[in-house]
TrEMBL record:
PANTHER family assigned: SGNH HYDROLASE-TYPE ESTERASE DOMAIN-CONTAINING PROTEIN, THIOESTERASE 1/PROTEASE 1/LYSOPHOSPHOLIPASE L1
Recorded GO MF terms: hydrolase activity, acting on ester bonds
SGNH hydrolase-type esterase domain sequence ranges: 6-198
Pfam families in alphabetical order: Lipase_GDSL_2
InterPro entries: Ester_Hydrolysis_Enzymes, SGNH_hydro, SGNH_hydro_sf
The entry's keywords: Hydrolase
Protein name listed in UniProt: Hydrolase
């Protein structure tokens, strides 16, 4: 059995776009759950999503625990050995209180990749495979969130190119979620259930495309 850690924010956690008692989609609706269903018993899919999580910044309003870098290392070490770590963060860094450019947000993701590479968290003490996923752009209409995400629309549309440059420089896998899903018009930055299904299917295909079968064949 192989293992993948899905490290992200509310769109990995499964925050709903409509009111629910727990404001969270069920396990089998969230994109990591879709990945789990597609890959089957061959994979352990570990969900580590936190609403409000940033790349590398403490949140002065929501708290220091929202800093994705602070929790990353203990999280990875608690789940090792890992075959793959998927990082999908950056949407919360678009909030105006962080005052970051798209390039700076991407650099934060790059810092997380460097942290993962510094850990012997893969099989036999090796570095696990790493995949950066660029979050989909926000909707143009952010409704009651427009003040919090002022200016995010344009910056969010620049993230994928910046993330791809980081992935190439770090020699890790890259996927642009905006190619297959859009942020919900309900609030402007979360994914609806249909988007979770589409994203899970796409990421499962990306995981399988890494070439695990070839590796097993060589080992045998």
């Amino acid at each position: 059995m192989r293992s993948v850690l899905c490290y992200g924010d509310s769109n990995t956690y499964g925050q709903t776009t409509a009111n629910r008692p727990d404001d969270r989609y069920p396990h089998d609706v969230r994109w990591p759950g879709i990945v789990r269903a597609i890959l089957g018993d061959r994979w352990l899919v570990i969900e580590e999503g936190l609403s409000g999580r940033t790349t590398v910044s403490d949140d002065p309003i929501e708290g220091a625990e929202k800093n994705g870098r602070t929790y990353l290392k203990p999280c990875i070490m608690s789940h090792k050995p890992l075959d793959l770590v998927i990082v999908m963060l950056g949407t919360n860094d678009l909030k105006i209180r962080f005052n970051k450019t798209a390039g700076e947000i991407a650099m934060g993701v790059g810092a997380l990749v460097s942290d993962i590479k510094a850990l012997p968290a893969g099989i036999d003490g090796k570095v696990p495979e790493i995949m950066i996923v660029a979050p989909p752009p926000t909707a143009m209409e952010l409704k009651e969130w427009s003040g919090v995400f002022m200016g995010a629309q344009e910056k969010s549309r620049a993230l994928a190119a910046e993330y791809e440059r980081i992935a190439e420089a770090q020699e890790v896998h890259f996927f642009d979620a905006g190619l297959v899903v859009s942020s919900s018009d309900a609030d402007g930055f979360h994914l609806d259930a249909a988007a979770h299904a589409a994203l899970g299917k796409a990421i499962a295909e990306e995981i399988e495309a890494i070439g695990w079968g070839e590796e097993r064949a060589r080992a045998s």
